[in-house]
Design brief:
- This protein is an alpha/beta fold and 267 residues long.
- 25% of the residues lie in helices and 23% in strands.
- The chain has a 9-stranded mixed β-sheet, sandwiched between helices.
- A hairpin with a 3-residue loop joins strand 7 and strand 8.
- The longest helix is centred in the first third of the chain and has 17 residues.
- It starts with a strand and ends in an 8-residue tail after the last helix.
- The structure holds flavin-adenine dinucleotide.
């Protein structure tokens, strides 16, 4: 049983600043961390590993310092890590990111049965990369998985939360799932595994390692999305104070909620 988990390094801040002229994120001086949803993807894989003695491989596309998230994954019990890094991969939108990752997954030693992604990232936040990887690879996929009921060497049974409906389904390998944070509580890194992982090799994938080496399919050239303008939304805080007796205040609050269309007028 071979599991591939896609992990992404994201800025460790809620306040991402964007250079309005270039439309590029200002990363200088910003610490990075593993995308929180990917910790749930890793925990899901680790639980399956404990049951089926599966091999877990992580893959990330990013700059050379994205090695840090692979090392973090090693300290959690991951067996193997690949970093996809090449100047040609830079500036990728969702289409190019997912295509690059799907090409990278194809060259992973031993292939894969199950691919697990986080539901979304905390920076790009599109929640599209997982399903798009599956489409490029031509395999079935299910998003927003909240519970694994069973995993065998042939298939996986799970619950997916589609907001209005909750479904239980079984999918045969090879397939891809994206997982939501209700799925499990991620474990903490182990000092023993961290020490053992210190001499573990991270495998590097560049454009030259892929079967499709056409640079027009990667990075900015392979990205049909054109960002016309990017800017921080302005936020306006208005405060209204009601300082009369309780009944009058309650009525005024009610009128305000009607005006803002939070509640329907009961009259
Ligand atoms: P989601 O779809 O929200 O992520 C879901 C899951 O997919 C994750 O939990 C993870 O499991 C997996 N995943 C996503 N990304 C990766 C990854 N890189 N490696 C491994 N697994 C992953 N971003 C930049 O950092 N630098 C740029 O120069 C840049 N240029 C851009 C240019 C354009 C025109 C556009 C539209 C976007 C650009 N972006 C850039 C943002 C970039 O497209 C997204 O961050 C990227 O496509 C991933 O999408 P997401 O973060 O929304 O992932």
């Amino acid at each position: 049983m071979k599991i591939v988990v896609c992990i992404k390094q994201v800025p460790d801040t809620q306040k991402v600043k964007i250079d309005e002229k270039t439309g590029v994120m200002i990363r200088d001086g910003i610490e990075s961390k593993m995308n929180p949803f990917d910790l749930y993807a890793l925990e899901t894989a680790l639980k399956i590993k404990e049951k089926l003695n599966a091999k877990i491989t992580v893959i990330t596309m990013g700059p050379p310092n994205a090695k840090a998230v692979i090392q973090e994954a090693f300290a959690l019990g991951v067996d193997e890590g690949y970093l996809m890094t090449d100047r040609k991969f830079a500036g990728a939108d969702v289409l190019a990111t997912s295509y690059t990752l799907s090409e990278g997954i194809k060259v992973i030693d031993g292939g894969y049965d199950l691919i697990i992604c986080g539901k979304q990232t905390t920076d790009g936040d599109t929640a599209q990369v997982g399903p798009a990887i599956a489409e490029h690879l031509g395999i079935p996929h299910v998003s927003w998985v909240t519970k694994i009921i069973d995993a065998s060497n042939d298939d996986i049974t799970f619950v997916e939360d589609m907001l209005d409906d909750i479904a239980q389904a079984k999918m045969a390998y090879p397939c891809l799932i994206t997982v939501d944070k209700d799925i499990s509580q991620p474990r903490l890194p182990s000092y023993r595994l961290k020490k053992q992982a210190s001499d573990k090799q991270i495998k590097i994938i560049t454009l030259a390692d892929l079967s499709d080496q056409d640079p027009d399919n990667y990075g900015l050239s392979g990205s049909p999305t054109q960002v016309e303008r990017i800017f921080e939304p302005s936020s306006e805080h208005k405060v209204e104070r009601y300082e009369q007796d309780a009944e009058t205040n309650a009525f005024k609050i009610y009128q305000k909620l009607v005006e803002l269309k939070y509640v329907e007028d009961q009259k």
